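FORM 7B: Structural annotation worksheet

SECTION A. Query
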Amino acid sequence: MENKTVKKRLILKKHIQLFLLKTMLVIIITLIGLIAVKHDQNIKIAIIKNVYEKSFKFTKTKELYNKYFGSIIPIEKIISEEKPVFNEKLTYSAHNAYKDGVALTVDSNYLVPALESGVVIFIGEKTDYGQTIIVEQTNGISVFYSNINFVDMKLYDYIEKGSLIGEAKDEKIYLVFSKEGKYLDYKKYI
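SECTION B. Predicted structure
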């Protein structure tokens, strides 16, 4: 029993050390970038152009970070040890083209799953017509989920494929798919 406790402590210590190392690397890179911006006007203009004037892809940034630094928290290990409470696929009884997307007919009180893993980039205000949430998926496609009531979700949360997004406000949910500002044909994605 004591041997398992010692192993867990060593693993925890290793994860803490890796987390601190990754944090220090990010701080050092950020400081180097800030110094470069301060001393070179061309770098400042390039950063303003690419960060403030273009659409920022959170999922691409996460992929690059994980490629070079690994995950901050070993999520794969945590997920493999836990069994998800909710992991579903999208089911509906009918679909109709609606504006730039699709209207899906679902059961009343239907729990809406995430089509793919991604980052929550927008949460709309609560209205009589439900809310809208936009998830930028890891494949670069943004999905607008509308006419739903949300569960406990915050801006920039990372959600896994099949995890709970919210509950359908009535028997319709609306989905819109877009990539780089262009609407996509929903038939490929539902």
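SECTION C. Observations
The chain has four helices and ten strands. The radius of gyration is 21 Å.

SECTION D. Sign-off
Analyst initials: ____
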